Structure formats: structure tokens, C-alpha cells
Amino acid sequence: QVQPVESGGGLVQPGGSLRLSCAASGGTFVGYTVGWFRQGPGTEREFVAGVRWSGGNRYYGDSMRERFSTVKDTANGAVFLEMNNLKPEDTAVYYCAVGRPIMSTVTTERAYYYWGQGTQVTVSS
């Protein structure tokens, strides 16, 4: 089974940018949708973005499209989450998840089978 592994988190100042990476361990993302979720302090986990590996369709959570972008790194079999103009409220643990959701469930946690451990993103001056 494929196990997603996140990297690239850290501390960034407000207005800065960060790129997270999700690599596939023990398999590939072929045939799956790779989703990004985040969970901030005291909040529920929410959908950020997702990309369907075959076909490349991309999906975004509410208000995420403005500053976040997810792209495939086809050469390395990975997926990136590019985050721009970061704000303190973007502080969260960011998770990469893999599943085969249908269109109506692409933003829901239960549609994803395999989850990474998460990577911390802190936006602070």
C-alpha cells in the first residue's frame, strides 16, 4: 500500500511562502487522488486542496484557491502544495492523504485511505 510522506513544513513570517511536498512510500500515486488537509489549534481538520494523479484535475477548499496551489511532480512521483501570502491563521499541521474519492467526496476525510504523519507549518513574526 502507498504511504504518503510529507515534508517542507517550518516557521515562516506572515506574507511569506512555503512549499510542502508529499512523496509516495511503498507505492505510487497512480490511480489515486492526493489530498491536502490541515488542522489548526482547536479546530477541526479541513480540506485544503487535492489533485487527481491520472488526469490532473485539481480541487480546492473554500477560499483556498486564492493563495494555495497543488501540483504534481511527475518526474519524482510526488505532489506539492504551494502556499503564498501566508497568514497566522494558516498555522496548522498539514496532512497529505491518498484515496479514490468521487467528485462529491473529494473534500471529505473519510474518502482517503492512507494518511501521512503531518508536517507543522507555523506562520509568525
Architecture blueprint of SSEs:
Elements: E1 3-7, E2 10-12, E3 18-25, E4 33-39, E5 46-52, E6 58-60, E7 68-73, E8 78-83, E9 92-99, E10 112-115, E11 119-123
Parallel strand pairs: 2-11
Antiparallel strand pairs: 1-3, 3-8, 4-5, 4-9, 5-6, 7-8, 9-10, 9-11
What labels would you give this structure?
125 residues; mainly beta; seven-stranded mixed sheet; 11 strands; globular
Task: Describe the protein's architecture and organization.
With 125 residues, the chain is mostly beta strands. The protein is 0% helix and 50% strand. The protein has strands at 3-7, 10-12, 18-25, 33-39, 46-52, 58-60, 68-73, 78-83, 92-99, 112-115, 119-123. β5 and β6 (58-60) form a beta hairpin. The mean pLDDT is 96.
Brief summary of the model shown:
With 125 residues, the chain is an all-beta fold.
Q: How does the major sheet shape up?
A: 7 strands, mixed
Average pLDDT across residues?
Answer: 96
Helical segment count:
0
Which geometry do the CA atoms define? globular
Number of strands: 11
Determine the fraction of residues in helical runs and give it as a percent range: under 10%
Strand content: over 45%
Q: Which residues form runs of ≥5 with pLDDT under 50? A: none
